[in-house]
Design a protein that fits this description.
Elements: H1 2-9, E1 12-16, H2 30-37, E2 44-46, H3 49-55, H4 57-61, H5 82-86, H6 110-113, E3 127-129, H7 134-147, E4 151-154, E5 170-173, E6 186-187, H8 205-217, E7 223-228, H9 233-245, H10 267-270, H11 280-283, E8 290-296, E9 302-311, E10 320-329, E11 341-343, H12 351-358, E12 367-374, E13 382-387, H13 391-394, H14 399-418, H15 427-431, E14 433-434, E15 450-455, H16 458-472, H17 474-479, H18 484-491, E16 494-496, H19 505-510, E17 538-543, H20 544-549, H21 551-564, E18 568-571, H22 588-591, E19 593-599, H23 604-614, H24 659-665, H25 669-689, E20 716-720, H26 728-738
Parallel strand pairs: 3-5, 4-5
Antiparallel strand pairs: 1-20, 2-3, 6-7, 7-12, 8-9, 8-12, 9-10, 10-11, 13-15, 13-16, 14-15, 17-19, 18-19
């Protein structure tokens, strides 16, 4: 009899499900949900304001709610970390206090607002579930669908737009979900791999993981690591450090985020996953490292999906994916050894579209329960390269000489990172170094230092190459009034840091010792939590071709940046252009970008130059808006350029405080990131996979601000009910009505 029920449960049932969010969550039968998920682990609670005030606010209040308006200005906490916030039992705390409000909206009088929050601005969920198993997730989704309440998903709350929360939603806080990275290392060279994907019914998770190895090996990579949906990079990095320590010598590497408390399998990767500290110029973005995904979809189906066919592509270092296959878990019980994976019903899900959207297309397509990351070959120990000489203190440099040196430095940066043959470097040598927040970027040689993260002998290569460039420019420096002593000082501007070599990023960070607010032995979260993310800035990709081919514009611009330092940048380029499977939602502008530049409104004229390059020089809108911006570091006040003139940046928060007015004037955030064509495709995928917008939060595809009434017309939606489901009886009854 059990076999018959199990067989019936595997059927896919189609029926109309009008889904509305205009419900009063206080009237819902929450006991029905807690009966299914609460196993004395305190994994369900209501998201009261009192809990938020008691557990989240004091961490910011003890430092006086610091902001850039403080005296002295202080953007982030000095003694608090996100470790404190994510460990609070209510699950509500976010990296930015303002994300308790819609759009993480900047509030100038924080002390007053936390005492009396405007109901219209409140943006926290109504209830929180801490899933301990996939069955808790499927039960929560079934409850939300039945009762018309929206859902949000959170790991650590790093989103600067509040994408991990939504007002009166049912939040899934994934931090207590099973963690796999400490036990899931899989060395593919040890396996006898099938050449075709598992086709029999009842495939095991181990067999599907073996197929993930097949995908990795097609790219010349010999290991994978499974990362749970609630893990943070601190946990993954420390586990990978032990993997290499337990081998005869370090063999493998993982590409990930710079902050220890950033989620390793959620919004970070979904938003592409920049990795300046862990070698993205060598290996590509974090999203490019994914070889298999495991999710619970808005339908409630628990699926795994992965490339199963690919072809060689002369434009890519890896094969281009041509087919993606999905397997559905017909027995999603708590005991994972009993999971049974079968081919999902044909046509139920377009897995090529899903594979595209979840790697670079952000949140809102379901709940990530685990990811199989490929582990590239170990690139050598990590060494910091520093631009560590404040030349103004070493010797008096006349202003004319400063200008010449700064111009030489700007040309060196362009060539060493994006045109390496011009300075006698190979591309692989160039790619050994990179970094966020500057790297070997635009420090003012006469007052500002910079740091790059280099693998192997990359730091020494950059140092030697700069010294050669200085020697080549010796006559130019002499003509500008330099002495031999000054030229020698200039030649030593780039040096490997004296800290020595480290096995990996985890070892480097932990070598700094304990820091305030961070538990001993954990990787620091930088930047630290703040009251709000800086509003007066934007995120724009600067194309490589613009820098290399327009030196008359780019060199003076970078020289000016070096002197005034009005923005910061995130170095890209290198193998990012080729190390991917050709199917991510990450746009071509990511692949062709030299660096991400965060700028303030005072740079409007300079930024217009870049906007002109992106749009072909035309200010008046014509055709589709091109993708321009970056996703990982957005904040709630960012908009694209003016709708009426694509070469003019949107007025800043301080120029036009009214959000409604800027919404009217400026290109929407998602179109700014993905462009018109890219956004349309993602919106269609969202409509197909989540037609009723069950997952709806700002900063995700298809966000709908208005929640009154139906979010969509009643739609025929596919559901598969697992054997443990409280709705199995309904499923069987419906089936019996169709069985003769």
């Amino acid at each position: 009899e059990k076999m018959k029920i199990h067989h019936l449960a595997a059927f896919v049932i189609s029926f109309s499900t009008p889904f509305a969010l205009a419900v009063d969550p206080s009237t819902l039968p929450w006991d029905n949900l807690t009966a299914l998920i609460d196993d004395d682990s305190d994994n369900f609670h209501f998201a009261s304001r009192d809990a938020w005030m008691e557990q989240c606010v004091p961490i910011f209040e003890r430092e006086g709610f610091p902001t850039w308006f403080s005296t002295p200005p202080q953007d982030f906490l000095l003694n608090g970390s996100n470790y404190e916030l994510i460990d609070q039992p209510n699950g509500l705390c976010a990296d930015f206090l303002a994300c308790a409000w819609t759009f993480c909206k900047f509030q100038p009088n924080v002390e007053d607002i936390v005492e009396d929050i405007d109901e219209d601005k409140w943006n926290l969920p109504y209830a929180v579930v801490h899933p301990l198993s996939v069955s808790h997730i499927t039960a929560s989704i079934a409850f939300a669908r039945e009762h018309g309440i929206g859902m949000s998903v959170k790991t650590s709350g790093h989103s600067g737009v509040g994408a991990s929360t939504d007002k009166d939603s049912l939040m899934l806080n994934m931090r207590r979900y099973p963690k796999y990275s400490g036990t899931s290392f899989l060395q593919c060279s040890d396996l006898s791999l099938n050449q075709t994907e598992p086709t029999h019914k009842g495939a095991t998770t181990e067999e599907l993981r073996n197929w993930a190895c097949t995908v990795a090996k097609s790219r010349g990579i010999n290991a994978v690591l499974r990362v749970g949906g609630g893990e943070i990079w601190d946990e993954v990095y420390r586990n990978m450090n032990m993997v290499n320590k337990n081998l005869p010598k370090p063999l493998y590497h993982i590409v990930g985020g710079g902050a220890g408390t950033v989620g390793a399998a959620g919004g970070y990767m979904g938003n592409t996953g920049l990795a300046g500290t862990t070698g993205m110029r060598l290996f590509g973005y974090a999203a490019d490292q994914v070889v298999q995904m495991e999710m619970v979809l808005p339908s409630g189906d628990h699926v795994r999906f992965s490339p199963t066919e690919w072809v060689d592509d002369d434009q890519l270092a890896w094969p281009r994916t041509t087919k993606v296959t999905g397997w559905c878990n017909s027995n999603p019980v708590e005991d994972e050894t009993k999971w049974l994976w079968e081919f999902c019903p044909q046509g139920a899900v377009n897995f090529e579209d899903l594979w595209h959207s979840v790697r670079g297309g952000g949140n809102g397509f379901g709940v990530v329960t685990s990811i199989e990351y490929q582990l590239p070959n170990y690139p050598g120990p990590l060494v910091l390269a520093k631009t560590s000489l404040n030349l103004a203190k070493e010797a008096p440099f006349p202003s004319a000489l400063q200008d010449v040196v700064q111009k030489t430095w700007a040309n060196f940066l362009i060539d060493s990172q994006w045109n390496p043959s011009a300075v006698g470097m190979t591309e692989e040598e160039s790619n050994l170094c990179g970094g966020p927040n500057g790297g070997l970027s635009f420090p003012n040689l006469f007052g500002t230092d910079g740091v790059a993260f280099c693998h192997g002998n990359g730091g020494q290569i950059y140092s030697d190459t700069w010294a050669r460039s200085v020697a080549t420019s010796r006559d130019i420096f002499l003509a500008a009034g330099a002495t031999d002593a000054q030229i020698d000082i200039i030649a030593q501007y780039v040096i490997p840091a004296p800290l020595g070599e480290f096995q990996d990023y985890a070892e480097l960070v932990l070598a700094n010792g304990d820091t305030p607010g961070v538990p001993p032995g954990r990787i620091e979260d930088q930047a630290r939590p703040g009251v709000f993310l800086i509003q007066d800035r934007d995120l724009l990709m600067v194309p490589i071709k613009f820098l290399v081919e327009n030196r008359d514009v780019s060199v003076p611009w970078l020289t000016s940046l070096g002197k005034t330092a009005p923005g910061s940048n995130y170095m890209m380029g290198g193998n990012i252009a080729t190390h991917h499977d050709g199917t991510t939602a990450t746009g071509a502008h990511y692949r062709e970008t030299a660096f991400l530049y965060t700028y303030a409104s005072l740079n409007a004229d300079l930024i217009s130059t870049i906007l002109q390059y992106h749009t072909g020089g035309e200010g008046e809108p014509s055709g589709d808006f091109p993708p321009m911006a970056e996703f990982n570091h957005i904040n709630g006040e960012i908009f694209g350029p003016l709708k009426t003139n694509w070469t003019k940046p949107c007025p800043s928060f301080f120029e036009v405080p009214s959000r409604e007015e800027r919404e009217e004037l400026c290109t929407p955030l998602m179109e700014y990131i993905f462009g018109t064509k890219g956004l349309k495709r993602l919106e269609q995928i969202k409509a197909d996979i989540d037609p009723d917008h069950l997952f709806n939060s700002y900063g995700s595809i298809g966000y709908r601000k208005e929640k009154d009434g139906l979010l969509s017309e009643p739609s025929s939606t596919s559901f598969s009910f697992p054997p443990h489901s409280p709705y199995l009886g309904l499923a069987i009854a419906m089936l019996c009505g169709m069985i003769v």
